[in-house]
Write a structure and sequence with these properties.
alpha+beta, 21 strands, Gyrase A, domain 2, 4 domains
Length: 676
């Protein structure tokens, strides 16, 4: 943005796709986190990931119980996000996978950086024309959500000031870092003392490259384009992990009338434009709501651009709102002593209480569920309040605009209003939970409600997921946006020097570009589709390594059909087939049989013969095919070469193990003889 915007933002919140990014002062940057295909960053443990769930964790894997607390940063302050997490009263269980040792358990100092990981990070820096730092100083980044046993994540700045080229235009790369991945969450249990979160330590410590772009992205569609370009650049190294969860995108989005929000959980790139547009709609909605609320209290309105905010005015508004909305929590359980709601009765049976937070003059402001033009939930204050409450560990809250509902009848609503001495213009929020948790949840609700008079808060939000995919592109609050207080030096990892010689070596050994790889494959006799798939699955290097000894198209087919298998095994089986000792149709079965092994050629041939995979003698094949064609001579004369398809299945059934290409050639020859 250049000059501050002084006109009111235009756009229909219910039609997010029609919002104009440029006129709304749209700003966006992307953070990409990519796992590297190496061992762990600071422990020399292998980078294996184990396909386990909470129900399939082996009994012999040990478990450790921990509680974490927020520590002060180097400047003496406790980070706002860390302070919030520490109030959630959560405990953590860590499951020790086979690739997790004392370092992962935070019972032994970390080792220096994995050299392969550093090399990959430098290579990506060079591909982005970024400038490397001369010394890698590892920092600790405070993380107290339990995903790191130590309470912090180790991260090292590798390079700065790069450029990513996209079709829409260049995007600056502010920083490229090398950091540890977090533990994987397996389950969350609710206990009487708070949540218990269970983590698997297999992923903890895997090296991640983090790339943060400058806010040069000019539209939601450009954000998707930028993410694709970053992913392509990382894959160019051929040393990054593939598959679900191996790369994660975070979106930093703001409008002039809103503020910066970081959105996590953008796994599917096709959803990025929709997620961003819905965030634009949300920021626009809450800007307008803030001015409506300010007008109701005769307070100065927000200017259309946050750069025009006056700190003294905002402090006076804050003070006025805090006076208008004091923290008054009342136990209204008695109002529900006779209530048929199963939810309410179950809660009371477990010792929960129903607390109420009165919110004067906010009736009708919370909103009820409604959908936009593309069937996504419209932004509303009630949903934000529920999101704030859920961060305290409760499943949700009830607000007055949505009641009666959930088995809570109109008489219960009237009883609450009478108990709290509320007028019809006043709103309230109810929370059913243990006393301490209900108090924390409603304090969070009040804090978020007071913010409704201001611009949207800077925070980290998460895409709402249902059945493993975005529900509708909307987001929910996750935690406050962290500040600089979360970073301080890591004294256990020595500083690593990146000298001129190492950087020059990196520049002289850059990986091939996508265009160069495509050109290289054009020298081989493979189809266009095979070439595209070899490149897309990153199998082109494996293909080229052995293509001189094998038929090109056949080798490409075997690789693509068995891309998870050992390439040496695939090459050996194909070589045995080319020697005429097994059939083409048996290749995949034989590769599957020998998975995890590397048999000799004679062992492969012996297995093929013992299991009926040895090709029939060509002379015998010819006789069988001639007989089948002769029996169906009239059909062949009528259909001519059109008989190939129907007869091919008949012949293959008759001959059993045979090479399909040989059978096809002999059948064609036999049909041509009768057709002539």
């Amino acid at each position: 943005m250049a000059e501050p915007i002084d006109t009111e933002p235009v756009g229909d919140v219910a039609d997010a796709s029609a919002l104009n990014p440029e006129s709304l002062g749209f700003m966006c940057g992307i953070e990409v986190h990519q796992q590297l295909a190496t061992g762990k960053l600071h422990s020399r443990q292998p980078g294996n990931l184990y396909d386990v769930t909470i129900d399939t964790v082996p009994d012999e894997w040990k478990r450790f119980n921990r509680r974490l607390r927020a520590a002060r940063g180097e400047g003496g302050a406790i980070d706002v996000a860390a302070r919030f997490e520490s109030r959630r009263n959560r405990s953590f269980v860590y499951i020790q996978s086979p690739n997790a040792g004392l370092i992962e358990l935070d019972e032994q100092p970390p080792l220096t950086h994995d050299d392969d990981a550093v090399s990959i990070a430098l290579t990506v820096s060079a591909l982005l024309n970024a400038k490397p730092v001369s010394l890698l100083q590892t920092m600790r980044k405070t993380v107290v959500d339990g995903s790191n046993t130590s309470g912090f994540q180790r991260t090292s700045l590798i390079s700065v000031d790069g450029i990513l080229q996209t079709e829409t235009g260049p995007v600056g790369v502010d920083v490229l870092c090398l950091e540890e991945d977090s533990a994987r969450k397996l389950d969350t249990l609710n206990t009487g003392d708070g949540e218990q979160v269970i983590y698997n330590l297999d992923r903890l410590g895997l090296p991640l490259i983090e790339i943060a772009t400058a806010p040069d992205i000019i539209s939601p569609e450009h954000a998707k384009e930028t993410s694709i370009a970053l992913g392509r650049c990382l894959r160019q190294t051929r040393r990054v992990r593939r598959g679900l969860g191996s790369i994660r995108q975070d979106l930093n989005v703001s409008l002039a009338c809103g503020d910066r929000v970081e959105i996590k959980g953008c796994q599917d790139l096709s959803w990025i434009p929709r997620i961003i547009r819905l965030e634009m709609s949300r920021q626009l909605h809450f800007y307008r709501l803030a001015n409506e609320l300010r007008s109701s209290l005769s307070l100065p309105l927000l200017p259309p651009d946050r750069r025009s905010d006056d700190a003294m005015v905002e402090r006076s508004v804050r003070d006025a709102v805090e006076s208008h909305l004091p923290l008054n929590l009342d136990d209204v359980s008695v109002c529900f002593s006779v209530c048929d709601s199963k939810m309410v009765q179950t809660g009371f049976g477990k010792g929960s209480v129903m607390l109420a937070l009165p919110l004067p003059e906010l009736a009708g402001r919370f909103g009820t569920k409604a959908m936009d033009s593309e069937d996504s939930q419209l932004p509303r204050l009630g949903r934000e309040l529920a999101g704030a409450a859920k961060l305290a560990g409760v499943k949700g809250v009830f607000h007055s605009d949505e009641l009666p509902a959930y088995g809570i009848e109109s008489e219960h609503v009237a009883a609450v209003r009478q108990h709290l001495s509320l007028s019809e213009s006043d709103g309230f929020v109810l929370c059913l939970a243990p006393q301490w948790q209900a108090e924390l949840a409603l304090e969070s609700v009040l804090t978020r409600c007071r913010l409704a008079w201001h611009r949207i808060p800077q925070e980290v939000r998460n895409v709402v997921v249902k059945k493993g995919a975005p529900e509708d592109g909307t987001t929910a609050p996750m935690r406050p946006l962290p500040g600089g207080a979360r970073m301080y030096p890591e004294t256990d990892v020595p500083v690593l020097t990146i000298d001129h010689q190492r950087w020059q070596q990196t520049l002289e050994n850059l990986p091939m570009s996508d265009e160069e790889r495509k050109q290289r494959l054009s020298d081989y006799e493979v189809s266009d589709d095979q070439a595209r798939q070899l490149l897309a699955r990153e199998l082109d290097d494996t293909f080229v390594d052995r293509a001189s000894q094998l038929p090109h198209k056949g080798w490409a087919s075997v690789l693509l059909e068995n891309d998870e298998a050992n390439p040496d095994l695939c090459a050996n089986v194909l070589a045995v087939k080319e020697a005429g000792l097994i059939t083409r149709e048996s290749i995949n079965d034989i590769i599957a049989h020998f998975a995890g092994m590397l048999p000799r050629s004679d062992e492969i041939a012996a297995f093929g013969e013992a299991n009926g995979f040895k090709p029939a003698d060509e002379g015998d094949l010819g006789a069988i095919i001639d007989g089948i064609v002769a029996e169906r001579a009239d059909f062949v004369r009528e259909r001519k070469m059109g008989a190939m398809g129907p007869l091919m299945g008949v012949v293959m059934q008759a001959v059993g193990a045979a090479d399909g290409k040989v059978v096809s050639a002999l059948l064609r020859e036999a049909i041509q003889k009768i057709s002539e």
